[in-house]
Amino acid sequence: MSASMSDDARWLAAAASVAARARPISRPNPGVGAVIVRNGKAIARGWTQAGGRPHAEAVALAAAGDAARGATLYVTLEPCAHASERGPACADLVGASGLARVVVGCMDPDPRTAGAGISRIEAAGIAADHVPSPACENSLSGYLIAKRLGRPEVTLKLAMSLDGSIALGSGESRWITGDEARAHTHAMRAKADAILVGGGTLRKDKPLLDVRLPGLEARSPERYVLTRGQAPKGWRALPSPKAITWMEGIQYLFVEGGAGAAAAFLHAGLVDRLLIYRAPILIGGRPGIGDFGLPSLDAAHGRWRFCERRQLGSDTLEVYEAENPSGK
């Protein structure tokens, strides 16, 4: 990798880090991050604001002011090229900015922009490059899945003992994991647009599914229950995993259980990411996942790619991503 390409990758990763501030408050728009760089130093940054406007590029350009002239803009997603009642197209704002160069980490699959954003910037006399960035794609994963597959990205969370149990035989399940793991779960909730449990879990445990981290209480996601019946007040009913295509404006769905809901989403091939919190205990209780229809043991292999492991107090978190998500 050349020095310039290495710098591009580094600044795009920085833009992806900035984009994390936009999730999930930017919905229904994608959470985009932007960094403006001059002489190897960041002079401004921006991320998509609450409700989707203003966009990251507009925030960064406003922060940079005249200093943007001759600088380079790094942005996680191709600047939008379509007109909107809520604000000008970012490709036009960028084209009039006096920037010397724009580097895009991910092309926009939205047909209203797809390629047109970069073309419009180039037509304004600004160099524009697409430098594929795994960090940018990861930061936009929910948006990309929503555009490509017509559904939200699904993360399945499981808190289990070493022997894969989520409760004692009696049903007692509070608490399997410790404070650090539970706090991490709340942080993951805060990054989701919606959260879901099965009907049995709702009736038995009556979970709040809110975010109880100081300063993030307002980030509590919309609550769904997997049921063909009526949802209680404050909840929405989802009759089947495949009905997630009906979840308008939802890019990130967090499935918290129980075993039946986990099995239903796995059986439908609709789990993109696994978060497995494992406590160092053996309880010989109720399994964390029900039967989800694997035809053979061979069929279990090659489905999941290990991504990350971290220690959370005495518990361990392992993250896996689906090798071949449904519809890809």
Automatic annotation (TrEMBL):
GO terms for molecular function: 5-amino-6-(5-phosphoribosylamino)uracil reductase activity; diaminohydroxyphosphoribosylaminopyrimidine deaminase activity; metal ion binding. Residues 6-120 form the CMP/dCMP-type deaminase domain. PROSITE patterns: CYT_DCMP_DEAMINASES_2. GO terms for biological process: riboflavin biosynthetic process. InterPro entries: CMP_dCMP_dom, Cytidine_deaminase-like, DHFR-like_dom_sf, Eubact_RibD, RibDG_C, Riboflavin_Biosynth_HTPR. It catalyses: 2,5-diamino-6-hydroxy-4-(5-phosphoribosylamino)-pyrimidine + H2O + H(+) = 5-amino-6-(5-phospho-D-ribosylamino)uracil + NH4(+); 5-amino-6-(5-phospho-D-ribitylamino)uracil + NADP(+) = 5-amino-6-(5-phospho-D-ribosylamino)uracil + NADPH + H(+). It comes from the Bacteria. The keyword Transmembrane helix does not apply. SUPFAM superfamilies: Cytidine deaminase-like (SSF53927), Dihydrofolate reductase-like (SSF53597). Its cofactor is Zn(2+). Keywords: Hydrolase, Metal-binding, Multifunctional enzyme, NADP, Oxidoreductase, Riboflavin biosynthesis, Zinc. Pathway: Cofactor biosynthesis; riboflavin biosynthesis; 5-amino-6-(D-ribitylamino)uracil from GTP: step 3/4; Cofactor biosynthesis; riboflavin biosynthesis; 5-amino-6-(D-ribitylamino)uracil from GTP: step 2/4. Coiled coil: none annotated. Converts 2,5-diamino-6-(ribosylamino)-4(3h)-pyrimidinone 5'-phosphate into 5-amino-6-(ribosylamino)-2,4(1h,3h)-pyrimidinedione 5'-phosphate. This is Riboflavin biosynthesis protein RibD. It comes from Novosphingobium endophyticum. The gene is ribD.
